[in-house]
Specification:
about 170 residues, alpha/beta, Conserved hypothetical protein from pyrococcus furiosus pfu- 392566-001, ParB domain, two-stranded antiparallel sheet, 5 helices, 7 strands, about 40% helix, about 15% strand, disordered N terminus
Length: about 170
C-alpha cells in the first residue's frame, strides 16, 4: 500500500499521491490545507525544525517512541501534520513524533498551525485543558457546533484521523 501525503526526509520534502489525492483533503501541495486564507482565522500548513517545537504533552510510551525512531531512520517523517499553535512553537498533538524526529535528526516536519485569531481567549483556555487527542477533537467539535468558530474543519479532520489511528493501534 502506498501512503499518500507529505513525507519529509533528511533530504527534504516529498509529496506522495499527486494533486487531489493527498492526506487530509489537501491538493498535494504544501500550504493548500488550511482555514480561511490570509488574514482570517482557521489554520495554515507550515513546516518547522522539531528542535523549535515544544510538545504540550509528555512522551508516554517508550515502545511507541522506539518504533517511530526506527521507522523515521528508514523512511523519514511520513506521519500526518502535527497540530500546533503560536506559529508552530507549541504542539497539541504528536509528542512522540516530535521527539523521534529530533532523535533521528530530521530538519523539518509538517505542521497544521492554528492561526492566532481563530479562537478567543476563553476558547484557548478551554483548549489548554484538553489532555489527549480525543478531548481535543471533542473541544473543536463543540467550538464549531456551539460557538460558531469557522475555518476549523481541517483541524477537526486531522484530529479525527489521529483518533482513528490511535484506536486502531490500541486494537492491534
Amino acid at each position: 500500500m502506498i501512503r499518500k501525503g507529505i513525507i519529509i526526509t533528511k533530504d527534504g520534502l516529498r509529496i506522495l499521491g499527486g494533486p487531489g489525492s493527498g492526506n487530509f483533503g489537501h491538493s498535494g501541495i504544501p500550504g493548500q490545507r488550511g482555514g480561511s486564507g490570509s488574514g482570517g482565522g482557521g489554520s495554515e500548513n507550515i513546516s518547522k525544525n522539531p528542535d523549535r517545537i515544544e510538545p504540550f504533552n509528555p512522551v508516554r510510551s517508550n515502545a511507541k517512541l522506539e518504533s517511530l525512531i526506527s521507522s523515521m531512520e528508514e523512511k523519514g517523517y511520513d506521519g500526518p501534520p502535527i497540530l500546533t499553535y503560536q506559529d508552530g512553537e507549541i504542539a497539541l498533538t504528536g509528542s512522540h513524533r516530535i521527539v523521534a524526529a529530533k532523535e533521528v535528526g530530521i530538519d523539518k516536519i509538517p505542521l497544521l498551525n492554528i492561526k492566532d485569531d481563530t479562537l478567543n481567549e476563553d476558547q484557548w483556555s478551554e483548549l489548554q485543558s484538553a489532555r489527549d487527542t480525543e478531548s481535543l477533537l471533542r473541544t473543536f467539535q463543540d467550538f464549531k457546533e456551539y460557538e460558531e468558530v469557522s475555518g476549523i474543519d481541517d483541524i477537526i479532520e486531522l484530529l479525527e484521523e489521529e483518533v482513528s489511528h490511535e484506536q486502531s493501534e490500541w486494537m492491534e
